[in-house]
Amino acid sequence: MAFKNSYLKKVYDDVAARNKGETEFLQAVGEVLESLEPVVEQNPDIIKTGVIDRIVEPERFIQFRVSWVDDAGNVRVNRGFRVQFNSAIGPYKGGLRLHPSVTGSVIKFLGFEQTFKNSLTGLPMGGGKGGSDFDPKGKSDAEVMRFCQSFMTELCKHIGADTDVPAGDIGVGAREIGYMYGQYKRLRNEFTGVLTGKGLTFGGSLGRTQATGYGLLYLTEEMLRCMKNDSVAGKTVVISGSGNVAIYATEKAQQLGAKVVALSDSDGYIHDPDGIKLDIVKDIKEVRRARIKEYVQSVPTATYTEGCTGIWSIPCDVALPCATQNELDGASADKLIQGGVTAVAEGANMPCTPEAVEKLQAAGILFAPAKAANAGGVAVSGLEMSQNSLRYGWTFEEVDSKLHDIMLGIFHAAYDASEKYGSAGNLVMGANIAGFLKVAEAMIAQGVAY
Ligand SMILES: NC(=O)C1=CN([C@@H]2O[C@H](COP(=O)(O)OP(=O)(O)OC[C@H]3O[C@@H](n4cnc5c(N)ncnc54)[C@H](O)[C@@H]3O)[C@@H](O)[C@H]2O)C=CC1
Ligand SMILES: O=C(O)CCC(=O)C(=O)O
After folding, report:
1. Which of 364, 386, 405 is the last residue before a domain boundary?
2. Ligand 1 in contact with 210 (CB < 6 A)?
3. 215 and 174, same structural domain?
4. CB of 94 shorter than 6 A to ligand 2
5. Shared domain check, 233 and 180
6. Is residue 305 part of a domain?
7. Are residues 224 and 131 in the same domain?
8. CB of 323 shorter than 6 A to ligand 1
9. CB-CB contact of 304 with 263 (8 Å)
10. Which of 159, 190, 221 is the last residue before a domain boundary?
11. Do 145 and 272 have their domain in common?
């Protein structure tokens, strides 16, 4: 990390010393602190409030044992986490990830980012995140249910509709939220909006399934319109991943008139130059929970290639990384630039490495960071909380129109902050600053012992 400001360098060094080896968390903290240099320069009094020293330390970090019994009768043990990062502007809010790569560092980076993302939505939500190193791949429905029940048996002691409201993330969709909600209700005997992403028959919001992918395209469209007088229509788009975010990003991109030519999973990627047939992908991923390579059995003109990073060699106008953190590195950024990319927007959380972001920005590529670009999911989660509190449900069109307005608001908040703090068009800096300022103001108003 290259800090010009000695105070920010000291904050970063303290975080690095306290969180040794937590590379993902340190990467996320370093990026935000770098963005705050002009804020500290313009308002040196902020140092005395200690708000920056406080915002990088989670309010609470919970780690717990999750034991469950597999179909063969064996006892299995996983590690569960919930980080309650910041509650200055609302109850902790953020998803749960089930993936073998989950560690304390991954959960902390996600919870830290969530704090600023939630602030950008304009809704009253603090930052949190959780999950487990449980691997849902290859598990039966009954095993997933038993795991989710055991996980919630501990998690329910720490969450609540006005305290902390988890939702889905990688490996957690409608099925897992249903099992967890059922267990919460059994244990607590209360029907509240304690989770979002719920099924539509028990308090879920229309539009939550589509929200992150649709929101990503609403923001990308606004970025192209305002910064390049252009639009998504007619563009060739490459999207990584083939989960919730990637599928609904593809759907909205196609509705806006773009051609999506590639998708991937953790084994490899498909390239369909004629345009991805989304109904086939939905059947493979949402119904059969199978691998993306099966696509070429239905579409023989498409190709399948093993490995994840090759997808960025496919020439495109717009690239939307929607799989996982650090999936797009400096070499992949070079390939995208050579392939003529003009805009990159992050659907996943922190999918581009710092080197990739630097290269894309230096090449003049429009770049929308995750905190802004993928905030649509949590925004509609916030709308689900509102509907639960009202004991009411809005139509799909009502939710979608609010989502659209929120995403445009996020783009303009980030753009305006980038201008005000001297880096017009640098949306990484703008999103970090705009997200930070609201949380910081609330923390200062609430006093030092939060
Ligand atoms: N679901 C949501 O509402 C939101 C999700 N996100 C982020 O979006 C990303 C994707 O999440 P979801 O779509 O919800 O998860 P998901 O579990 O529905 O799908 C994840 C997909 O990524 C693929 N994948 C995993 N590692 C990969 C790799 N190295 N290369 C290529 N593909 C890989 C998986 O095979 C799967 O198809 C994550 O970073 C998540 O944190 C961000 C905001 C909201
Ligand atoms: O809907 C939510 O509460 C969380 C979504 C999420 O995990 C994210 O924005 O990364």
Report:
1. 364
2. no
3. no
4. yes
5. no
6. yes
7. no
8. yes
9. no
10. 190
11. no
Are residues 112 and 222 part of one domain? Answer: no
Number of structural domains the chain divides into: 2
Report the largest interatomic distance among the alpha carbons of the chain, rounded to a whole angstrom.
Answer: 64
Residues 115 and 236 in one domain: no
Please check whether residues 359 and 218 belong to one and the same domain.
yes
Whose structure tokens read 């992403």?
197
Distance 280 CA to ligand 2 centre (A): 26
Count of other CB atoms within 10 angstroms of residue 89: 21
The number of beta carbons lying within 10 Å of the beta carbon of residue 87 is: 23
pLDDT at 239: 98
User: Which residue numbers in the chain have pLDDT < 50?
Assistant: 450
Q: What is the 3-state secondary structure (H, E, C) of 58-110?
A: CCEEEEEEEEEECCCCCEEEEEEEEEEEECCCCCEEEEEEECCCCCHHHHHHH
* Ligand closest to CA 172: 1
Measured in Å, residue 57 CA sits from the centre of ligand 2 at 20
Whether residues 354 and 263 fall in one domain = yes
For 427-443, how does the pLDDT look when each residue is reduced to its tens digit (9 = 90+)? Answer: 999 999 999 999 999 99
- Domain membership of residue 418 (yes or no) is no
**Terminal-residue alpha carbon distance, the chain:** 29
pTM of the entire predicted model:
0.98
Which of 97, 169, 172, 410 best tests ligand 2's pocket when mutated (most atoms within 8 Å of CB)?
169
Token pair in block for residue 244: 């919730």
Q: What DSSP string describes 181-233?
A: HHHHHHHH------SSS--GGGTPPTTHHHHHHHHHHHHHHHHHHHHHS--ST
Residues acting as catalytic residues: 129
Q: Which of 244, 245, 242, 223 is nearest to 232 (CA)?
A: 223
CB 216 within 8 A of CB 373: yes
| pLDDT reported for residue 279 | 98
* CB distance 167 to ligand 2 below 6 Å: yes
Range of the domain at 113: 60-190
Tokens of 156: 């329910």
